[in-house]
Amino acid sequence: MDLCHVPAAREKGWYLALMAPNVKGPNYAWLDPSRLYCHPQGLQDCMADLLQPFQGDPIDMVAGIDAMGFILGAAAAATLRKGFLAIRKAGHLCVQTLAQPYTDYSGREKVMEVRTDAISPGLRILLVDQWVETGGTMRAAIQLVERLGGVVAGIAAICIEDSEGGRWIRERYKCAHCVPPSLQPRFDRHQ
């Protein structure tokens, strides 16, 4: 798809067609949204769809999850005119951190960290990541925010899959994602 082309009818999720399928094998995610981020209107419409459910909600800060959640999270923070907090994989922050172990979508054990001085009790955080597949990474970010006394104001991602972890998150938190209900089964099956 031409990175300058904008369809005449821009229905929710039209920009999902900009994503490229995995051609490198099972160690990689099944879709790559980075081409969507290169498309000016696609990125703007994606942001509008992600943030629309939170219009009027009290949000104090946006936190993006390492690493691809930094792109959408920073865009959301700029759109909302809020600060941005990076929730990092262990070992990347040179300040005092709080750590949370988790299992990622590929089944690997990892550790997520957040600086301890950025979240004060009651601060309302919108958590943003590129994708929620099994929910392990997002759940670790939720635990970090809540352990520091923050409140999860919502969860936003291009896709929140209908997995056990995705359902756990949707049952407990206000969520937004870009996949229309008619396409959700295909995304859940990675088609």
What does this structure look like?
This protein is of the alpha/beta class. Helices cover 29% and strands 27% of the residues. It has a single domain (29-188), classed as Rossmann fold. The strands form two sheets. The chain has a seven-stranded mixed beta sheet with strand order 5-6-4-3-7-8-9, sandwiched between helices. The longest helix has 12 residues, at 40-51. The two termini are 18 Å apart. The mean pLDDT is 93.
Quaternary status of these chains?
single chain
Please provide the ordered H/E string of secondary-structure elements.
Answer: EEHHEHEEEEHEHEH
Q: List the uncertain runs.
A: none
Q: Report the CATH topology name.
A: Rossmann fold
CATH architecture: 3-Layer(aba) Sandwich
Annotation, overall tally of beta strands: 9
Content-based structural category:
alpha/beta
Largest sheet: 7 strands, mixed
Overall morphology: globular
Mean pLDDT over the full residue set: 93
- Helix fraction, binned, reads 25-40%
Strands side by side in the biggest sheet: 5-6-4-3-7-8-9
User: What is the class in the CATH system?
Assistant: Alpha Beta
Describe, in short, the structure shown.
Belongs to the purine/pyrimidine phosphoribosyltransferase family. With 191 residues, the chain is α/β, with parallel strands linked by helices. 29% of the residues lie in helices and 27% in strands.
